[in-house]
Amino acid sequence: MPNRKIERKNRQRAANRAAIIDAARRVAVRDGASGLALRAVAAEAGYAPASMYEYFRNRAELVIALAAEDLGQMARQLREAPMQGGSLSGAAQIALSTLQESGALGAAAAALETDKIPPD
User: How far is the first Cα of the chain from the last one, in angstroms, to the nearest whole number?
Assistant: First the structure.
């Protein structure tokens, strides 16, 4: 019985974290990833600003989570894209498109330069 409670709590925590990341994505699209603020994300997700710190220690950690999702999406697209005659042009197009569409990747790089690197 205690295992079910822990599993349910872990599923709820993962769902909450995903909801926060989705809200952060909407705020980043609207306001730009470089201007992403935890308070704005909290408002978008319907959470109290202080509750954001239960999931992310700081803005940099949230931006890095967004960038990690973008990189994961790019990796999935690259796996699904057929490599035509060994050409890398399709892969390059996917990578460039992801870089252009994702403000989170550049913001994550900037966050890593200016903020403390969060633990894995």
Answer: 31
Residue with tokens 């949230």: 62
Distances (CA, A) of 82 to 2, 70, 73, 111: 47, 20, 16, 34
The answer to whether 52 and 38 are in contact (CB under 8 A) is yes
Q: Please state the pTM of the whole predicted model.
A: 0.72
C-alpha–C-alpha distance, residues 96 and 105, integer Å: 12
For 14, the token pair is 């993962």
Question: CA-CA distance, 117 to 55, in Å (whole number)?
Answer: 16
DSSP per-residue codes, 82-93: --STT--HHHHH
Number of helices (H) and strands (E) in the chain: give both, helices first. 5, 0
What is the mean pLDDT of each successive set of 10 residues along the chain, which is 120 residues long? Answer: 87 95 89 84 95 92 88 82 62 74 68 52
Please name the amino acid found at residue 89. S
